[in-house]
Amino acid sequence: NIQAILTDPTCGSATQQLARAGAYQVSSGIHNLVASVAPWSSIASGRRLLEKTNVLLNRKSSEDYIFAVLFCLNALCTPLQVVKSDINPSWEKGLTRNVEEFATMCDKCGPQIYAALSDPQTKQAID
Predict the structure, then answer these.
(1) 2 FRET partner, CA 20 to 30 A, in 21, 86, 103, 113?
(2) CA dihedral for 23, 25, 28, 30, sign (positive or negative)
(3) Alpha carbons 62 and 34: distance in angstroms, whole number
(4) Percent of residues, the chain, with pLDDT higher than 90
(5) Residue 53: CB atoms within 10 Å
(6) Bridge-partner residues for 20, per DSSP?
(7) pLDDT, tens digit (0-9, with 9 covering 90-100), for 81-126
(8) pTM for the complete prediction?
(9) Backbone angles phi, psi at 19, to 5 degrees
(10) How far is it, in rounded angstroms, from Cα 99 to Cα 109?
């Protein structure tokens, strides 16, 4: 049972239409509609996973390719410590965990975060 098909940005459009993650398949109009109107659904989770992996694959670095695969394994197969602590807020983590993580980051690293975001060069690197 195939859980995911990731496509490199250099793949042709026919190949990119084969991309899928969990319950979501890129080529399905119904899946795209469900993902848009029901962001809590497993279909929407699959679309978010593909969006995250596409960002990584578009960077064209070996490290990002590895993390794209690790994010898929974590979301679709088994929890992995190396990607478990993704700092981005998400439906998958839920409101409480997102708020807790944000509060912890601000408590422990507030001045450093402010300094990084205040410096144009550092902010550009983060974005």
Answers:
(1) 86
(2) positive
(3) 33
(4) 41
(5) 24
(6) 5, 25
(7) 887 766 566 767 777 877 888 888 889 998 998 888 888 888 888 7
(8) 0.69
(9) -60, 140
(10) 15
Q: Match 């997102």 to its residue by tokens.
A: 98
Q: Which of 22, 78, 89 is nearest to 49 (CA)?
A: 22
DSSP lists the bridge partners of residue 98 as: none
Structure tokens at 110: 């507030």
C-alpha distances out from residue 56 to 16, 33, 67, 71, 107, Å:
15, 24, 7, 10, 29
Q: Are 41 and 34 in contact (CB under 8 A)?
A: yes
Tokens 């995911």 label which residue?
A: 4
Beta strands in 1-127 (DSSP E): 4-5, 20-21, 24-25
Beta bridge partners of 25: 20
Sheet holding 4-5, edge to edge: 4-5, 20-21, 24-25
